């Protein structure tokens, strides 16, 4: 497994970032050369469809995301953040994201003695579970490590059909509200409320 992250700050208070994570080898998907792995990083659409050599079923599996965070200054400063992530590509185009996960939130660091965060998440139902195809051989459960998800935080809530087989695609949405309080006598108290809906989501 390997990855890369690049971030910039175009102006004070605004940051942009891009991330890529790629997993390769293992079981039925093993045997790739270093050249094929590098090609998969450069051309992920071909890597996940036809491969680069005759008889190649798949070369690597990838995730990517674009993030943005903007801090609004003022007497009560706050930040707005956003992430658009993808599991593989879409429509055979390396620049199009497939199976998306969208996250957005607003964070108030100081509202008197309180701090407040609201966050929204929406993720595709096929983010982790895939049927056995010529593309998904060796990566039927997405990017995982010992069945623990790397990517969407809700992926580890999948239902196990057997000890080693996932049965739940866990697409859905989440709304989260977090309130923190620093009382005058010291310490810190936090309340977190989350609404989850993961039964009727459709792929974007």
UniProtKB/TrEMBL annotation:
InterPro entries with a match to the protein in the record: Wzi_sf
The protein, known as: Porin
Organism: mine drainage metagenome
């Amino acid at each position: 497994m390997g990855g890369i992250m690049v971030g910039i700050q175009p102006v004070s208070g605004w940051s942009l970032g891009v991330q890529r994570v790629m997993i390769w080898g293992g079981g039925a998907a093993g045997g790739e050369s270093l050249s094929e792995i590098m090609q998969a990083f450069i051309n992920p659409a071909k890597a996940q469809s036809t491969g680069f050599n005759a008889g190649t079923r798949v070369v690597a599996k990838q995730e990517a995301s674009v993030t943005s965070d903007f801090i609004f200054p003022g007497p009560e400063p706050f930040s707005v953040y956003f992430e658009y992530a993808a599991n593989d590509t879409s429509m055979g185009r390396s620049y199009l994201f497939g199976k998306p996960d969208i996250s957005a939130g607003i964070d108030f660091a100081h509202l008197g003695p309180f701090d407040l965060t609201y966050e929204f998440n929406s993720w595709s139902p096929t983010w982790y579970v895939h049927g056995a195809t010529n593309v998904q051989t060796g990566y039927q459960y997405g990017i995982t490590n010992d069945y623990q998800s790397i990517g969407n935080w809700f992926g580890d809530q999948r239902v196990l059909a057997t000890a080693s087989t996932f049965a739940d695609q866990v697409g859905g949405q989440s709304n989260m509200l977090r309130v923190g309080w620093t009382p005058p006598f010291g310490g810190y108290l936090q309340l977190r409320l989350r609404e989850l809906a993961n039964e009727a989501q459709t792929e974007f």
